[in-house]
Design brief:
The protein is mainly α. Helix content is about 55%, strand content about 5%. The chain has helices spanning about 15-30, 40-45, 50-70, 85-95, 100-105, 105-115, 125-140, 150-170, 215-220, 240-250, 255-260, 270-295, 295-325; strands at about 5-10, 35-40, 75-80, 145, 175-180. The chain has a 3-stranded parallel β-sheet with strand order 1-2-3. Helix 1 (about 15-30) links the parallel strand 1 (about 5-10) and strand 2 (about 35-40). Helix 4 packs parallel to helix 13 and helix 9 packs antiparallel against helix 12. Bound molecules: adenosine-5'-triphosphate (ATP) and magnesium ion. Adenosine-5'-triphosphate binds near residues 8, 19, 149, 185 and 200. Keywords: Aminoacyl-tRNA synthetase, ATP-binding, Cytoplasm, Ligase, Nucleotide-binding, Protein biosynthesis.
Length: about 325
């Protein structure tokens, strides 16, 4: 079986619709066909300030949401990144292989550091794409299911894998991004020119999966569209409406063309009312399942402990080989 790896940050508490449609939904599907490793990336979360108590709670909450979304610990390996120390260890080696200019070109870093004030951004934020490289290479992943915003980091991963293999000898699998066109980028409902994001969205434009269902419905109904009234998929001229159609289509399995036909001659109100209903039907059971996992923290922690053990077995092997290739003297 080919291998996949991906991760999600335990920063904001609730996952948002972009996380689910852009990434987690694919993770659930891929556990059937791939040897799948999925993690809650707490090391990435501390690249921006985190409250320790919140971080701990949000890490469990992220794992609970992943299980609620359909990850099955018998079909995939689910773990917490900091439970596997090899991530930080391989990241150091990769840091030493990355050019300063190369890292400076990462657009996610540029956006995130600009938001904090460039001087205040941590060095960790600067090198987090390189930690991500290590995350992926440790598992010799063939594919990495992520949203469009991560494409540049996967490119960096490929470059560094090839660079290392070229310099020291064949060590790492060169991975590919697994990005589905329809859901590669879900946009903020209030500002369809920016991606829906844990850290950058407007509260009204962000669909949190754990919001009260009536809040979710309200956010859908107040989504920004345009002054025209035609319901048509046209990302250039109608980004707001197109975003709603993409979401609707993915959640229901209906083709976009079918939806355009269904709503021909009807106003945006009808589309939004129906989509709000579709969304509530999706988030209500998701919230319940998440709560069930949270109510049983012992079971949750046991799943994560077993996941970490399985992940470590793979990660330790890759790290040992990497250290050897680099020329580190083995510890006796
Ligand atoms: P932040 O803005 O703090 O980076 P985030 O909203 O991007 O948070 P992450 O935990 O960084 O959340 O991302 C988890 C996964 O969700 C990644 O694979 C990312 O590509 C994907 N993702 C995030 N936002 C979107 C979006 N708007 N559309 C599609 N996929 C997304
Ligand atoms: Mg992100």
């Amino acid at each position: 079986r080919p291998r996949v790896l991906s991760g999600i940050q335990p920063t904001a508490g609730s996952f948002h619709l972009g996380n689910y449609l852009g990434a987690v939904r694919q993770w659930v599907a891929l556990q059937e066909t791939h040897d799948a490793f999925y993690m809650v990336v707490d090391l990435h979360a501390i690249t921006v300030p985190q409250d320790p108590k919140d971080l701990r709670a949000n890490t469990r909450l992220a794992a609970a949401q992943l299980l609620a979304a359909g990850l099955d610990p018998d079909r995939c390996t689910l773990f917490v990144q900091s439970h596997v120390p090899e991530h930080a260890q391989l990241a150091w080696v990769m840091n030493c292989l990355t050019g300063f200019g190369e890292a400076s070109r990462m657009t996610q870093f540029k956006d995130k550091s600009a938001k904090q004030g460039a001087d205040r951004a941590s060095v960790g934020l600067f090198t987090y794409p390189v930690l991500q490289v290590a995350d992926i290479l440790l598992y010799q992943a063939n594919e990495v299911p992520v949203g469009e915003d991560q494409r540049q980091h996967i490119e960096l991963t490929r470059d560094l894998a090839e660079r290392f293999n070229g310099r020291f000898g064949e060590t790492f699998t060169v991975p590919s991004a697994y990005i589905l066109k329809e859901t590669a980028k879900i946009y903020d409902l209030q500002d369809p020119s920016i991606k829906m994001s844990k850290s950058a969205s407007t509260p009204k434009g962000l669909i949190n999966l754990l919001d009260e269902p009536k809040t979710t419905a309200k956010k859908v109904k107040s989504a920004v569209t345009d002054t025209d009234t035609v319901i048509r998929f046209d990302t250039e001229n109608k980004p707001g409406v197109s975003n709603l159609l993409s979401i609707y289509s993915t959640l229901t399995g209906a083709e976009i063309a079918e939806l355009e036909e269904k709503y021909a001659g009807k106003g945006y109100g009808a589309l939004k009312t129906d989509l709000a209903e579709v969304m509530v039907e999706f988030v209500s059971p998701f919230r319940e399942r998440t709560q069930q996992y949270l109510d049983d923290p012992e079971t949750l922690d046991a799943i994560l402990a077993k996941g970490a053990e399985k992940a470590r077995a793979v990660a330790a092997q890759t790290l040992a080989r990497t250290y050897d290739m680099v020329g580190f003297l083995p510890a006796k």
